[in-house]
User: Fold these one by one.
Assistant:
Number 1:
Amino acid sequence: MKVLVTGGAGFIGSHVVDQMLSAGHEVSVVDNLRTGHRANVSPDVELHDVDIRDAVALRQVFEAQRPEVVSHQAAQASVRLSMEDPVGDADINVIGSLQVLEACRYSGVRKLIYAGTGGAAVGEPRYTPVDEDHPVNPLSPYGANKHAVEHYCSLYRANWGLQTTILRYSNIYGPRQDPHGEAGVIAIFVGQMLAGGDPGPTVNGTGEQERDYVYVSDVAEANVLALERGDGGMYHLGTGLGTSVNELFDRLAGMIGYRRPRQHGAALPGEVYKIALSAERAKRDLGWQARVPLEAGLRLTVESFR
Ligand SMILES: NC(=O)c1ccc[n+]([C@@H]2O[C@H](COP(=O)([O-])OP(=O)(O)OC[C@H]3O[C@@H](n4cnc5c(N)ncnc54)[C@H](O)[C@@H]3O)[C@@H](O)[C@H]2O)c1
């Protein structure tokens, strides 16, 4: 199958590319290298350095590649930056995603797989683990725009017959996540603990906040499964279990041999307190479940950063 991955030079997108290649698909990438890196992309893959907001350039790539399926991972993925610059954030995540949908419409793409978010879109949950029927109440512009694009996906499906599958990720971690990035507490802690310099890792707020951490190869696999399954569906990809930031800090410090005590800073605005996602629907329709346990995933991440 011909698959085009937007954001394929980024953290999650590059793992999607790798697994699509392993499954025997022909893959191309659109990425403007805003946060992604050319080195993340296999040399066998054509990388188009194009901004998804550039309608003309994007359509040229789609016309040349004629992908059957598009896995749309490109985004501004930081909650904090979305709070600082909601307009710039929406420009990439809403207008850029619309341009991707338009390019799909005009070049006869069969299916779009969309990288949504569970935590940031749902907001503070009424119950956990959160399933797909839980009301949506985003606390940040990032959560709002990721959710807005879900509606666009549904209406492109209803009006123009584009098959769509929405994958709402929980907190994804693993090799190639940016340790200097805005998001990704595991990568940030591992990077700072291994570097050992000052200041050491800082826990935002009490550290009691909980997230559902899924290893990156597991969400990449969900994208491969969604090539053929889950049309019209929206799926939460989580383990159902929350882990606190304090527990992460302690586990990583143990693995790395980091001896300094935890330091705490101010809590971040726009962040959910505690969340975990139920993946029962993804198990039923996609045959997906998270397979890499947290302890093993943390060890793989530490090894890759070393
Ligand atoms: N990391 C997580 O825990 C998480 C959780 C939920 C959802 N997501 C979603 O998963 C997707 C991938 O996130 P990630 O963590 O790998 O982030 P990332 O920043 O590593 O990857 C995003 C990629 O998109 C590219 N990009 C950004 N703006 C672009 C533009 N205008 N045109 C073309 N390319 C552009 C970047 O260069 C980068 O390679 C995003 O859609 C994000 O919202 C991530």
Number 2:
Amino acid sequence: MALVPMSRLLTHARQHAYAVGYFESWNMESMLGVIDAAEQMESPVIIGFNGGFIGHEDRIVTENIYYYAGLGRAVASHANVPVAFIFNEADNVPLLVKALKAGFNVIMHDHESCTFEESIEVNKYLVGIAHAQDAEVEAEIGLLPAVDMATNTMTAGENTDPDEAEDFVRQTDVDALAIAVGNVHMLEGQKKSSLYMDLVETLSKKVSVPLVLHGGTGVDEHDLKEAIKLGIAKVNVGTILRRTFIDALKGYYLSREVDTLDPNDVTSKGGEMDMLVFARRAITGEVIRMMNLFGSIKKASLFT
Ligand SMILES: [Zn+2]
């Protein structure tokens, strides 16, 4: 199966009462770990990169997003499961437009510094460009609180207002809407966020496009399953994959005398001693665990 529009994946997910995971990547191994999981589990999947990170002004090396787009397009077109490919959460509008040109088939604007009206204007503009080339736009109404690990504090959020959400989708014609319903960005560890189920239910009745839950890492698992039953069609997972990658590499280094090993075995040959394979397989394991929660396993074969 090749690259497919994300809206087709999400409509299918709603029809069959599951959610599609967006498992965010940052390099080749992290993306391959995701697609390995999707193929092994016969699950539809959304792959992609964080546009806010790739385009971040503090990056030491300015990235060429065409490299990232080329990788994702190749993965999607050779995978045997349906795949959508997103450039997630960038506040840089020209970069979002460039991402469409480069080959991502979904983009999402980070609206954190925008008013409601500004966000409507930006998204109308992006939808116009995206739809003209068979690509799509995800947007967000409301604001997720976010954990700042350096200071161990949490930024303030704002729950999604159902009337605003309905109005926004009608005015902009976006293809999917992320909502703030108690979910938190970058929440790790034992503490889990609980969701306002009444709000999820209201939003899924009011909003005409599929709903998205960001902050999938930190949501209570019971609540996650309930929210999917009520109408969440896409769940974003990022932080836990990064943590899994770090932990795998840490475990690798702590259990081996790396200085005594052949560098070709450690980085290049893809065998049991290859640290990148080690990290890639750890990601695959975590993605499979999340796909089980989302109910997306074996759903690829139902997709036509
Ligand atoms: Zn997010």
